[in-house]
């Protein structure tokens, strides 16, 4: 394998965002990618079907809490960059069972940090200087915003509302502590709600697409007034590469799509796209399938990201608008039932896993 390719360890690379990162990094021709994933319920190697035979790609099934396995991988693959995406990430699941979120998101990050620190200390001076540990986090660590104003910046105080966001906030703090205390070159990013191809069918966008496609009820929390900033996953993958390669050590970067929408607007947009592409047999408009259900506990009102820092420092911009990105997403699900149907058949699609 070419020594010119930079060796990157991607944790959680069989997940939604992680698989997009693996596909993107390999497509650039600049990286050798080692993907480590425990393959829990949302990890899916079929999302990596197109890169599975790439000679610059390696998959290892392992848990980030396994310190010895992580140390071995870092050494064997001569890792120059760590992109840490492995996490439990579903708010509803964190409410029902928070313990696994503590184990994966906090303990797992701690053990990965320790392995990365030992690896970094073993490197030659030049390699130590260029090494980065990139921790990928969420805007949910900031809590929520009023409906009538304000945005999250890199200086916004943390105020997590759910067990999920609390576990991610804790992991962010551990990453910063390893940078401050031990000098590990860390960089962080906090993103808004992602959507796009290969999204596990319990989240708002894919769940709505598939339920609407089948003419099933479309549950929306409360009155659908909660607002999220939406980011197309392939735009996010490009942003993560920019942060990994050009982000300043010790800094954090907020990544958003400048595309705020209420949950109801998202669901209605999906209905309209499917009505145009695949009308129901009875010719009903899919908006008639929308129903409002009791809100979940601690449901944040609004998230809004200010991406000015990454736009100004690293030159990244979201290429997709919400309209173009959502149309691409709907078209992908219509064309790729080979991917989602096996998941759908083994999964309770009515679960209100909207996570938005």
Walk me through this protein's architecture.
The chain has helices spanning 16-28, 67-76, 91-96, 99-122, 125-130, 163-182, 204-213, 233-246, 263-277, 308-314, 322-335, 337-345; strands spanning 6-11, 31-37, 57-61, 81-84, 132-138, 186-191, 193-195, 218-221, 227-232, 252-255, 260-262, 290-293. Helix 2 (67-76) packs parallel to helix 4 (99-122), helix 4 runs parallel beside helix 6 (163-182) and helix 7 packs parallel to helix 9 (263-277). The protein contains twelve helices and twelve strands. The strands form three sheets. It has a seven-stranded parallel sheet with strand order 3-2-1-4-5-6-10, sandwiched between helices. It has a three-stranded mixed sheet with strand order 7-9-11. It is globular. It has a single domain (6-199, 230-260, 298-322), classed as Rossmann fold. The chain is an alpha/beta fold.
Tell me the total number of β-strands: 12
What fraction, in percent, of the residue positions are helical?
40-55%
Mean pLDDT rating: 94
Query: Could you tell me the strand content as a percent range?
Result: 15-25%
Ends: how far apart? 42 Å
Can you tell me the CATH superfamily? NAD(P)-binding Rossmann-like Domain
Assign the CATH architecture: 3-Layer(aba) Sandwich
Shape: globular
Number of helices: 12
Task: Please report the first level of CATH classification, the CATH class.
Answer: Alpha Beta
Order of helices and strands: EHEEHEHHHEHEEHEEHEEHEHHH
Low-confidence stretches: 349-355
């Amino acid at each position: 394998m070419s020594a010119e390719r930079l060796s990157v360890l991607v944790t959680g690379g069989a997940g939604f965002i992680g698989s997009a990162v693996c596909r993107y990094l390999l497509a650039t021709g600049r990286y050798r990618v080692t993907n480590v994933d425990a393959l829990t319920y949302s990890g899916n190697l079929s999302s990596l079907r197109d890169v599975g035979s790439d000679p610059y790609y390696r998959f290892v099934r392992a848990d980030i809490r396994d310190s010895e396995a992580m140390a071995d991988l870092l050494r064997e693959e001569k890792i120059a960059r760590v992109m840490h995406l492995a996490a439990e990430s579903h708010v509803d699941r964190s409410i029902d069972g928070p313990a696994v979120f503590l184990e994966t998101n906090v303990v797992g990050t701690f053990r990965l940090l320790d392995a990365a620190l030992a690896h970094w200390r073993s490197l030659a001076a030049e390699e130590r200087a260029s090494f980065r540990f990139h921790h990928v986090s969420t805007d949910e660590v900031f809590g929520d915003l009023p409906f009538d104003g304000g945005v999250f910046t890199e200086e916004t105080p943390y105020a997590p509302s759910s067990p999920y966001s609390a576990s991610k906030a804790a992991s962010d703090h551990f990453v910063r502590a390893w940078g401050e205390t031990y000098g590990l070159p860390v960089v962080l990013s906090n993103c808004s709600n992602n959507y796009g191809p290969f999204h596990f069918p319990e989240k708002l966008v894919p769940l709505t697409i598939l339920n609407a496609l089948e003419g099933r009820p479309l549950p929306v929390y409360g009155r659908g007034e909660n607002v999220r900033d939406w980011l197309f996953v392939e735009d996010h993958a490009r942003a993560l590469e920019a942060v990994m390669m050009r982000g300043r050590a010790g800094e954090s970067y907020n990544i958003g799509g400048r595309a705020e929408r209420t949950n109801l607007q998202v669901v209605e947009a999906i209905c309209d796209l499917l009505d145009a592409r695949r009308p129901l047999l009875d010719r009903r408009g899919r908006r008639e399938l929308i129903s409002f259900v009791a809100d979940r506990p601690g449901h944040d009102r609004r998230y809004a990201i200010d991406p000015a820092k990454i736009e100004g420092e690293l030159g990244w911009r979201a290429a997709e608008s919400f309209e173009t990105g959502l149309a691409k997403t709907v078209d992908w699900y219509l064309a790729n039932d080979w991917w989602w149907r096996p998941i759908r058949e083994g999964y309770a699609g009515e679960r209100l896993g909207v996570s938005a």
